[in-house]
Design brief:
alpha/beta; six-stranded parallel beta sheet
Length: about 325
């Protein structure tokens, strides 16, 4: 028998999660069955979408149920195997949850090559955030060389990769982030052409100064007032990629819709939502290209790894919504 510490949803939160949201339990897993593997979790992915999974509302995936282990994508090591495709010692990724050990029948579990990149990078640039940036920008945003791209939450896991992909494709890239240090990172480390500090106020004025001729693609991770500022500074035929709206995830009531939506009509622009799971059959394509860009130095991977194990999951998740992390947020188990 294997004992494991797990984080379960105790109550649906209002606003940021609190200690009352979670119940940290110790559970004894059953014996390994036929066709199953036992994995030891090494790294847990922290993503803004997790906050939405806690609400009992209709979405692209069912909400996490009260009493259930919190859903998460993890990097793990196989420690026992009754599955023909997985051997003891293999490193894998899968939705195992916020737990120290997990049983799996192998469905949705993928091998991970640590000679290519570290575990946290496989959860970031080479994982779902990188895939989201790749397909959002190139498929939904239909980016073309020479265009001007605006990315919000640009110092985060998805935004930082999206901006670098745009640069690799020959675009002019402007990032929006919170605070001078994050803005400096965008321009001096990641190669963005300009950075806007939303905490400095009047984002629209800063945007018009950075992109006086308007923007062709807006990769939106934030929503709210920043989305309105982008709508006010579009070029004809612009595309808005609706990836997320982190500014509203902890609100008790739905925020007002964009007030400048008529810009879509005036500039013959489009705003399209997408979920990366829709491109699952093309993950290998995106992964190969992202790995090549990493190897060539065209994109850089940034991870913010928090130590302390599963008991720190709740406080670490809240870092996403207070701006405390830079790059991909990962919890080390």
């Amino acid at each position: 028998m294997t004992k494991t510490q797990q984080v379960r949803l105790a109550a649906r939160p209002t606003g940021l999660t609190t200690a009352d949201t979670w119940n940290v339990t110790t559970t004894e897993l059953p014996e390994l069955g036929p066709g199953e593997i036992l994995v030891k979790i090494g790294f847990i992915s922290l993503d803004p979408a997790m906050r939405g999974w806690l609400n009992d509302v209709r979405s692209y995936v069912p909400p996490v149920g009260i009493g259930e282990v919190m859903r998460s994508l993890d990097i793990a090591t196989v420690v026992e195997s009754n599955h023909p495709d997985f051997a003891v010692g293999d490193t894998v990724s899968g939705i195992f949850g916020v737990t120290e050990y997990a049983l799996s029948d192998g469905r949705g579990v993928q091998p991970v090559d640590l000679s290519v990149a570290s575990g946290p990078t496989w959860l970031g640039t080479l994982g779902m955030p990188g895939m989201t940036a790749y397909f959002g920008l190139l498929e939904v945003g239909k980016l073309r060389a020479g265009e001007t791209v605006l990315v919000s939450a640009a110092a985060g896991a998805v935004g930082s990769v999206a901006g670098q992909i745009a640069k690799a494709k020959g675009a002019t890239v402007i990032g929006i982030a919170g605070g001078p240090e994050k803005c400096r990172m965008l321009t001096e480390e990641l190669g963005f052409d300009a950075a806007i500090d939303y905490r400095a106020g009047d984002v629209l004025r800063q945007l018009r100064a950075a992109a006086p001729d308007g923007i062709d693609v807006y990769f939106d991770n934030v929503g709210g007032e920043i989305l309105d500022a982008a709508l006010a500074n579009l070029r004809r035929g612009a595309r808005i990629v609706l990836c997320g709206a982190i500014s509203a995830y902890n609100e008790e009531k739905p925020p007002p819709g964009p007030s400048r939506y008529m810009s879509l009509l005036v500039f013959r622009a489009s705003m399209t939502g997408f979920v990366v799971f829709d491109y699952a059959d093309r993950y290998a394509e995106a992964g190969a290209q992202l790995a090549q860009w990493l190897a060539e130095g065209k994109i850089k991977s940034r991870e913010h790894v928090v130590e302390g194990g599963v008991a720190r999951f709740g406080e670490t998740l809240n870092m996403l919504f207070t701006g405390a992390n830079t790059g991909k947020l990962v919890l080390a188990v």
